[in-house]
Amino acid sequence: MSCSEVRPDPACSGLPPALAAVLAAGIPLTQPGLASRCVLLDAGALDTADWSALAEPGQTRVFADGGPQAVRIAAELQRHGLAADTPAARLDGETVVATGLAALPAGAGTLVVGETVRLSPRYEAASAAAAPAAPGGEHYGPADARRLQRLLAGRRDMRHFRRGERIAPETLQRLLQAAHHAPSVGMMQPWRYLRISDPARREAIAALVARERDATASAMGERAAEFLRLKVEGIRECAELLVAALPPDDGTVFGRRTMPREMVVCSLACSIQNLWLAARVENLGLGWVSMFEPQPLAELLAMPAGAMPLAILCLGPVEAFYPAPMLEIEGWRSRRPWQDAVYENAWGEPASPNSAASKA
To answer: pTM for the whole thing?
Structure first.
């Protein structure tokens, strides 16, 4: 891969023309919080490019003379995990076409892909011009869509919390209201949240999780020692501890006659996801702990017959959000490309949002 990493000073001379063009368009090559490095790639090296490395976050990707290959470059980067709305720009002389990666048209010039593109003064205008009209209700524009994509990509399952912190009551109320705005099958709203404010009960919950952690390690075989090195919860450190539970069945039939238990669990999971995203936008971490035996926890919390705890949720301020999923950082498991999870017409048949079938 004829690729070089550069951290140039914008004021220095002798920059490659492609990088000079990027700076001239008002796009920084590096920027704290957005990109720690810049990667320059010649268009002729696309056949041997390491697309997995290029799709990693925290970098500005510059493809010299890559404009004519914009569609191919966008497809490869998305196939290896880069979001379709990642800011991108095509630079051709005085012309700057700046938009999301998937919407970038092919044409002459240098291609730039990365979060630093959003700092271009032409990025917002170009994106807004292509915005479709909302069919009804509140209108959301391209900037809202990008923020949502950033929020989704920035959500993390957190394990490390700052000790001794608190969450303001009004903030916690906003988070729980967000959780209650979740969709549910038959609008049965099968979620209950127990706030654990008693230190003794928090400690008892930590003991239940520690017991299951040991049992899980015993079932891991040769990966047991590696698993035990992972931090799997922040029960003692987090500012707030919640237990998400299913109440006794209310008899709802609408939408769940054939899958009664599955639809209840799915509905609660939607509520937890709402809570997770609401916490992230408040810059609070949330970690979902599933290592516990449900019945002992239900007894500890005096749950009625038929109720079931499904998640222990650690919530609170963190020193920093992980730059990638913690299990990926630890080398435990990597995120698969989204295309691996999408089929068309039959199981195992690959599909693409750009396929003819999806446009029909």
So the answer is: 0.65
